[in-house]
Amino acid sequence: MDLETCKIKQTQATAWGNGAELYAANLHEGSGIMMPLIAAYAETARAEVKGNPLILDVASGTGEPGISLARQFPNGSVIMTDLADGMIAGAKGRAERLSVKNASFDVADAEDLSQFKDATFDVVTCNCGLMFMPNYERALAEFRRVLKPDGLALMSAWGLPEHTQLISLMLGMQAAVAPNDSLFADPNILGSREKLVHAVERAGFSNVSCREVNVPMHIPADKVRVALVQNPLIRRMAGAAD
Ligand SMILES: C[S@@+](CC[C@H](N)C(=O)[O-])C[C@H]1O[C@@H](n2cnc3c(N)ncnc32)[C@H](O)[C@@H]1O
């Protein structure tokens, strides 16, 4: 792994891990911002998956869509993984609070899933994770490798900047205060439907379909302020103690 990639991954692991509590509260708890998108995973899995699947959720953050799918398939089983141990601790905590028993957790880089054998999983999911990965092609190849030949992969990336103004605003602020601590090679690399489908097909998936899901980001101003203030890069810039 080159130095730049290594740095991006370290920044990812620290930044996401430090923000896990806030992430869960705003994006996953109750009617959290991410939940309309998570509902789309549950809906597709309900229609397409039979029996008691073994599911791998990659870049789970504080446990979605893994926890929702574990609840949907109580006789199946879900392994949730993420690069950030803070996020995995948050996912474990949420699963315990929700009495989810059919789940396990692992810190793992999506670009190297070598702890899992070929053709292991019935379902692989990755919600809003790919665009953070410096080599997302390698991650997609790993998803394909660990998925059974007739398995189902569900994944998403956010859209282009004109549809993701709040994300662009937050990334813009971060780039302004900490230009050397980027979380991304390119945050919009999979923003268009064509690019996403092309990348997935190139990784060897077939029967690929793509749908747009609108995720409203109506965040009260005080919560946006808290999110920015808690961002470790912005805190560092402001000279705040970690
Ligand atoms: C926007 S969050 C998505 C979390 C969750 N899937 C959700 O739907 O809310 C992106 C997640 O990707 C994780 N991530 C970034 N790079 C990763 C990598 N190379 N391997 C695994 N996880 C990664 C981050 O730690 C973070 O938890």
From TrEMBL:
Keyword terms of this UniProt record: Methyltransferase, Transferase
Any one GO molecular-function label of the UniProt entry: methyltransferase activity
Top-rank lineage group of the source organism: Eukaryota
Keyword Nucleotidyltransferase: no
Gene3D superfamilies found in the cross-reference section: Vaccinia Virus protein VP39 (3.40.50.150)
Chain ranges passing through the membrane: none
InterPro entries (UniProt xref): Methyltransf_25 (IPR041698), SAM-dependent_MTases_sf (IPR029063)
Boundaries of every Methyltransferase domain copy: 55-151
One of the GO biological process terms: methylation
Record's keyword annotation contains Methyltransferase: yes
Identification of the protein by name: S-adenosyl-L-methionine-dependent methyltransferase
Organism: Coccomyxa subellipsoidea (strain C-169)
